[in-house]
Amino acid sequence: MRVLFATSEAYPLIKTGGLADVSGALPKALNNLAEFDGDIKILLPGYQAVLEKLRDVSPVATIEVLGQTCTLLMGKMPDSDTDVIAIQNTQLYERNGGPYSDKHGVEWLDNALRFGVLSRAASLLCSKHSPLQSWQPDLIQCNDWQTALAPAYMKLIDFSSTKSILSLHNLAFQGNFDVSWLKALELPIENFQISGFEYHGQISFLKAGLFYADKLSTVSPTYAHEIQTETFGFGLQGLLQIRKDDLTGILNGIDAEEWSPEKDSSLIKNYSASDLSGKAAVKKALQEQLGLHVDADAPLLGVVSRLTHQKGLDLLPKIMPQLIAQGCQFAILGSGDKALEASFNDLAQKTPAQVSMTIGYNEHLSHNIMAGCDMFVMPSRFEPCGLNQLYGLAYGTPPIVNATGGLADSVCDTNETTLNNDTATGFVMKSVSSASLLVTIEHALTIWKNKALWQRIQRNGMQQDIGWGSSAKAYLKLYEKTLSGH
Ligand code: ADP
I need a surface site. Which of 82, 144, 148, 358 has the fewest CB within 10 A? Predict the structure, then answer.
């Protein structure tokens, strides 16, 4: 089974969020699966960081897509033997900034072309005209809008026999562009219609994928249901309802080589479910590093997140003064909404011994917050899967979450029954409001004071099987189903 895994980011080459974690971990997990007798290659743009980090690189072909001359570079991931094909085009991808926007956060104006080229190249590699004749994929897995135009090119232009899956990591990002891009994207005008890639008068990359891909998947079973409703469907719920028999929800796993308290090299001390003592040392070091009052008895709450409406963290500043008065400390890392950044900063300035706000992206600090905190706060309004709550479970840092998407599928609320049968792993809000978040955090604080009970919740989470193994098996089943046409 030859699989082309098309994506716009993959950790550790380049990362802006959960998509990179999945793109880095899933191909590796499939390669480690005894049942997977296949060959999977990641296809992604040759951003500067990718070119710097790829191993054993050599050029294998030159292609001309959408009027752009690109070199295909074949190499390997820095941390595994997973094959990578990077599309090198200096003008399109080697820029001073992120994959989607410049260093001020302004989206690149030619993203339609940049990801049109990625999608078009993916389709070409699945066609008779592929320059890699000896490697024809049986299946392509596309991920999010950036590669979602590939199934349209495959069906409308290349008439490819390769089967396609579109995986949805977040429906909020759709890649909708002005119709004036039609010509540059070399899309047939007759398919610019409801039964095609048109969406409210625009060209929609994501809609194209939803319409033309053979199968659809998303990153949790609950999100697979939610996106068929008006509240979570971002206008695409109708099409998702039509395609519901082709839609599967598979919960992400975590990469245990990157995220394990037993092996994590970012921590000053490692620890495990059977010996949690190292966690106290990490908490102390974190408090010192962030300038918080060093106190083992002060409950330390962590946040690592993009600061956007989705993540619900705007619910937090309002209730922080009450929690600060109860002795809580906060270690916050993230960036995004400027007003929210300012609210957290304000609280940090007023109470530096109890609140730390780090604006930016910091992989090392994120691991230390995950390990050193007592609880992790993630009140997302919607959450396709969410990885941070999974990291919280693995690190003995029970997550406090809203009951949505992957959060609902991975965190079991603490109550008398779940405590008694050892299934409690975290704390689940009853509704999306500051009041509900406060009640839920206060419930967690009450239990936290009972160390024996708290350790049971920590161990329940840490002992759960949340590695990629079983998720990779579920993807393999989906691949087999897609190939058999069922
Ligand atoms: P999303 O992809 O919606 O941002 P996820 O929870 O699925 O949310 O994944 C987020 C990933 O990005 C996690 O690996 C998380 O640790 C990481 N992350 C988010 N913000 C930051 C940050 N400011 N610094 C370091 N890592 C971050």
Answer: 358
- Give residue 378's identity as a one-letter amino acid code: M
Residue 19 phi, psi dihedral angles, 5° rounding: -55, -40
Ligand 1, residue 383: give the atom nearest the CA: 3
Task: Specify the residue with its C-alpha closest to ligand 1, atom 20.
Answer: 305
413 CA to centre of ligand 1 in angstroms: 23
pLDDT for 485 equals: 84
Q: Domains in the chain, start-ordered, CATH in brackets?
A: 2-253+469-484 (3.40.50.2000), 278-464 (3.40.50.2000)
Rounded CA-CA distance 217/219 in Å is: 7
Tens of pLDDT, residues 223-238: 999 999 999 999 999 9
Question: Contact, 359 vs 335, CB < 8 A?
Answer: yes
186's torsion region: left (phi>0), alpha (psi -120 to 50) or beta?
left
Q: How, if at all, do strands 55-65 and 68-76 pair?
A: antiparallel
CB 203 within 8 A of CB 178: yes
pLDDT on residue 222: 98
pLDDT, tens digit (0-9, with 9 covering 90-100), for 258-289? 899 999 999 999 999 999 999 999 999 999 99
Q: Quick one: how far is CA 274 from the chain centroid?
A: 29
Tell me if 361 CB under 6 Å of ligand 1: yes
Distances (CA, A) of 132 to 61, 135, 300, 460: 8, 5, 53, 48
Mean per-residue pLDDT over the chain, rounded = 97
- What is the Cβ-side half-sphere exposure of residue 210, based on CA atoms within 13 angstroms? 32
- Block residue for tokens 């691991």: 367
DSSP for 245-301 reads GGEEE----B-TTTS-TTT-TTSSS---SS-THHHHHHHHHHHHHHT----TTS-EE
Q: Is 144 exposed, middle or buried (0-12, 13-18, 19+ CB in 10 A)?
A: buried
- Decide: 422 in ligand 1 pocket, CB within 6 A: no
